Structures are given as C-alpha cells and as structure tokens.
C-alpha cells in the first residue's frame, strides 16, 4: 500500500485550498501535505518587502468555501497570510502538513502504479509513495529572484536589495531610493517607500500599464448590508469575476484604444506624461498592474516619487547612471527586476526513471500533462485571480479520483493526439516568462489541450464536462479503457 492516496506539495494559497477540499469531499483518503519551509503561506509568508499586497480582489483571490470578511477588497500581504492560516485551522488541515519536508525527486513507477517521492526532512532523506501527486508549488523559484548584472554595481556605496529577499531592519527613512523595474512589485513598492523616503525614483526600461482601483469595494459593501454573508460573498465574487472578464475582453477587442485610455488616465491622476504609462505592447500581453486608491499616482503627483524611462548604463557610487548620461542619485537601490520561473518546486520528476521535462508535454486543461499519469499541477490565471483556476483544478481532481474509484481504475493519463498545433501554455510576453522559454509546457489549438484564460469556459470544462472525455485514459494494472461519464 502506498503511504498516501494523495500527496500535495506546498502549503500556500493553492495547497491549503486543495487540502481543504480533499478533506471535505473525500474524508477517507490519506492526504499528506509536504511543505519545504516551516510555515503555512507560501508566497505570502516568503515575501516581506514593504507594502506587499495582492493585485487581485480578495473576493476572487479567496476561496469560494470561506468568505473573505476583511474590509478591503485589495488588501495587504499580512491579511492574506492570516486568511490562509485561519482557513487551514478552520478546515482542520494543519494536521496533514509536514513542515521542513522538501520534495527532491518524484518518479512514477509504472509497475507499482504509484509515485515514489524522495523527500529531504530535518532528520535526513526519506521515501514516500502516493497514488496521486498534486503540485501546489507556484511557478517561481523561492530561492532567488531574477537580478541582472549591472556594470559597476560593486561600486555602489549603499544597500542593493532584491524584493524577494528584503533585509529585516533596512532603514530607508529620509533616504533617496532608486527602484529599478516597472512591474507589479515596483508599482507596489514605490508608493510605500515614498511615505518615509526623501524621494523615490522609479527607473523603467519600458513603461507598464497601471490601472487605479478602489481598495474597498463600495458596491460590495452595500451588498453585504442587504444579503446574508454567504449569499453576499457569492454575489460579490461573481460580480468581480464577470467584471474582470468583461474588462479583459475589451482589452483584446480594442487594445490600442484601451492602452491609450489607461495611459491617459494614469497621467491625469499622477500629473505626468502619458508616455510614462504607455507600454509598447497591448494590455494583458503582460499582467496589468494595479494601484489601489491610486497610491502610485498620488506619490508621483506630490513629488515624493518620479519616473525615469530609459536604459541603464551602470551603477555609480552614489546612484544609477543612465545611457542618456543622467545620474539618478540614490542611497538605496531596489532591483525589482522580476522572478525566476521554476515549476514543480525544482524537484526532479521522472517516469519509470526517464527524466520528465515540462516542455516535452502538452497541458491538459491547464491541470495535467500529456502522457503523465496521476499528476496534476496548480497553475492559476494570468488575467484574473490565481485562486479561481486553482480551486477549479482542485475540485476537478476530486471528480477524477471519484471517477477512477467508480470504474475501478488505478491510473489516469491524458493522451494527446499527434496533430495538435503547439504553442506555449503561458501566453505572456513578460520577461520572467520569456526567460523560462523551453521549460514550460505547451498547449494545443483545441480543447482539452488549449489553456483558456476564461473562467466561465473552465467552469464547464472542470465541473460539468465528462471526466473521461476521450483524451483521458483510465486504466488498471492489466488493461486500459475510457468510458464516458
């Protein structure tokens, strides 16, 4: 007998979601959650930089089965971390977590029909086996963020900081700060640092689109006063889902118009040039940045912060030298230059001893990989809240396990046709995605091999479409079969 029916790797936002749903829907299953670190929370426990927050509203970033009760819809990282930990406690899944357990390698044993996991623990390495493996490790490298080498950076006299490893006790009171980058992290950092700094200079190679949004959902507040809590939460959640989908579709239909509109609105609010916010790509070709209550725009308008667009020539002892010849003086430099993508938490995966490379496989519904048995990987939306897709995947894994049990199958393997036209499963032009080219799975040109960035389509595909759809092959030790549910 394997050690577990399901092993979940990661105790962050998606791992706690999966553990909670599995415990509730399949209480007889033996579930283990492996967490490499010593705390629940994943991203929201790792990142400690000033002002860390979500750029998704909590009514969709939160779980459908546990209403968000906070006052702010766009909230800080500490509140999100508390929400995840409170959920784990309320759903009684803390008992399933093995802290300090890092997955090093996992091999599918086709004869035994289970996954064999090599796990590093505080006491040494152990082996665990499981019928089904569910990856909830996110998509980036927890060990190090992406930091390019700048000429002369060793000459800079002050602290050089990457947000992923923010030093405890760093004092920026009254200091001049240069923030290199224009992505979501930089947009979060600049207004927060500007509250205490002498001045914050945001240096961007190219602009990003930034949209202002109220931190509190006023319409949602009114709905809460009218409806019972769960009904109000569901109504607000669906309102935000549909609003987000409508906004995204508008950007795809009229990218030029929406891009100019976003840039003009940002410039009007911040008192800057629209060129500072007009990206050289369409909205949502990279993730749209969010400024809650227009905090970035206010920092720019008051002069506490400024934007410089251009190429960096290198560092000087007292700041950043631009190719234009300008010197941006700084006492502290924050390199908000992005993440390193790393699927599977960096574990070495294999099938009967043969190395498993994500790029050699086609994504099935954005949840499993072609030719890979009894394995699912959480990967959220790029144009909406991460959790929306992850919860759909978790619920679908439960449907899959139920179907396997009903027909007596021990193995579930998506099998892709040979005539698929392939492209990357992650449709973003962001630097961290492009740097990971060649290590990401592919997607096809039709379902169920196409990854849709559309919640309504996925609701049908994950919750109502037949589990064994002709692409999903269910098998036992001695035979393969596929019957329609």
Automatic annotation (TrEMBL):
Q: Which InterPro entries match?
A: FAD-binding_MO (IPR051820), FAD/NAD-bd_sf (IPR036188), Flavin_mOase-like (IPR020946)
Q: Which UniProt keywords apply?
A: FAD, Flavoprotein, Monooxygenase, NADP, Oxidoreductase
Tell me yes or no: is Oxidoreductase among this UniProt entry's keywords. yes
Task: Kindly list the cofactors needed.
Answer: FAD
> Which residue ranges traverse the bilayer?
none
- Top-level taxonomic group: Bacteria
Q: What are the GO MF terms of this UniProt record?
A: flavin adenine dinucleotide binding; N,N-dimethylaniline monooxygenase activity; NADP binding
Check the record and name the Pfam families matching this protein: FMO-like (PF00743), NAD_binding_8 (PF13450)
Keyword Metal-binding attached:
no
Record-stated family:
Belongs to the FAD-binding monooxygenase family.
Protein's recorded name: NAD(P)/FAD-dependent oxidoreductase
Q: Which organism is it from?
A: Pontivivens nitratireducens
């Amino acid at each position: 007998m394997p050690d577990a029916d399901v092993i979940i790797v990661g105790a962050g936002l998606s791992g706690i979601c999966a553990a909670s749903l599995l415990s509730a829907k399949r209480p007889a299953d033996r579930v283990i959650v492996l967490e490499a670190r010593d705390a629940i929370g994943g991203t929201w426990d790792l990142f400690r930089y000033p002002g860390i927050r979500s750029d998704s509203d909590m009514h969709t970033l939160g779980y459908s089965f546990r209403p968000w009760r906070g006052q702010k819809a766009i909230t800080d990282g500490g509140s999100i971390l508390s929400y995840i930990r409170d959920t784990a406690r309320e759903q009684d899944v803390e008992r399933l977590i093995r802290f300090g357990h890092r997955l090093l390698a996992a091999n599918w044993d086709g004869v035994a029909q289970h996954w064999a996991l090599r796990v590093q623990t505080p006491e040494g390495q152990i082996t665990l086996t499981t019928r089904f493996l569910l990856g909830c490790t996110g998509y980036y490298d927890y060990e190090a963020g992406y930091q390019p080498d700048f000429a002369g950076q060793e000459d800079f006299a002050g602290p050089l900081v990457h947000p992923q490893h923010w030093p405890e006790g760093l004092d920026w009171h009254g200091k001049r700060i240069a923030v290199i980058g224009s992505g979501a992290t930089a947009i979060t950092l600049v207004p927060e640092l500007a509250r205490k700094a002498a001045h914050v200079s945001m240096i961007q190679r190219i602009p990003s689109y930034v949209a202002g949004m109220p931190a509190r959902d006023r319409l949602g507040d009114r709905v809460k006063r009218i409806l019972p809590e769960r009904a109000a939460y569901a109504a607000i959640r669906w309102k935000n889902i549909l609003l987000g989908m409508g906004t995204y579709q508008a950007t795809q239909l009229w990218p030029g118009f929406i891009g100019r509109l976003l840039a003009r609105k940002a410039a009007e609010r911040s008192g800057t040039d629209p060129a500072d916010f007009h990206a050289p790509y369409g909205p949502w070709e990279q993730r749209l940045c969010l400024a809650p209550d227009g905090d970035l725009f206010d920092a720019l308008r008051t002069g506490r912060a400024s934007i410089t667009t251009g190429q960096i020539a290198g560092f000087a002892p007292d700041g950043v030298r631009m190719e234009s010849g300008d010197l941006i003086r700084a006492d502290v430099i924050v390199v908000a230059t992005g993440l390193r993508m790393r699927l599977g938490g960096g574990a070495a995966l294999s099938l009967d001893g043969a190395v498993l490379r994500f790029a050699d496989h086609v994504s099935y519904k954005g949840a499993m990989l072609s030719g890979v048995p009894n394995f699912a990987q959480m990967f959220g939306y790029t144009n909406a809240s991460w959790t929306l897709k992850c919860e759909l995947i978790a619920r679908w894994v439960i449907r899959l396990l139920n179907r396997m049990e009903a027909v007596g199958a021990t193995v579930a393997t998506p099998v892709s046709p040979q005539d698929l036209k392939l492209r990357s499963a992650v449709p973003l032009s962001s630097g961290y995605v492009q740097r990971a080219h060649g290590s990401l799975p592919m997607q096809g040109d039709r379902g169920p091999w196409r990854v849709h960035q559309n919640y309504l389509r996925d609701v049908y595909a994950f919750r109502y479409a037949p589990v064994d759809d002709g692409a999903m092959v269910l098998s036992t030790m001695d035979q393969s079969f596929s019957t329609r549910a």
